[in-house]
Design brief:
There is one protein chain. By secondary structure, this protein is mainly beta. It has a single domain (2-73), classed as Alpha-Beta Plaits. It has helices spanning 18-22, 56-60, and strands at residues 3-8, 28-35, 38-45, 66-71. A hairpin with a 2-residue loop joins β2 and β3. The structure holds iron/sulfur cluster (2 copies). The site of one iron/sulfur cluster has 14 residues, from α1.
């Protein structure tokens, strides 16, 4: 089964909520985040397991703040894992 890893880059997210509105499976939630004495809206990934990899969020985020990557079956080791060389 294919699943997806979804990440929001908080530093560049402007909380516009496009992703939350466009995602067909309701993966994102817009929350208020406190930064020092200020508060701002950011998107957080709340239901990553529901992602179907349609890429609508990636294509429509105005600040390119979303990364969606395919992650293959859970029992397969991640291709990004490094094995120590002798
Ligand atoms: S569409 Fe992009 S900028 Fe807008 S809330 Fe979502 S992640 Fe943030
Ligand atoms: S790729 Fe599609 S299903 Fe996955 S989080 Fe983005 S909009 Fe939602």
């Amino acid at each position: 089964m294919t699943s997806y890893k979804v990440k929001v880059i908080e530093e560049t997210c402007i909380g516009c909520s496009v992703c939350a509105q466009i995602c067909p499976t309701d993966v994102f939630r817009i929350v208020m985040k406190r930064e020092g004495e200020y508060e701002r809206l950011v998107s957080v990934v709340e239901r990553e397991e529901a992602c179907i990899g349609c890429m609508a969020c990636v294509e429509n985020c105005p600040t390119n703040s979303i990364i969606v990557e395919k992650s293959e079956v859970k029992n397969a080791l991640s291709a990004t894992s490094t094995s120590p060389s002798a």
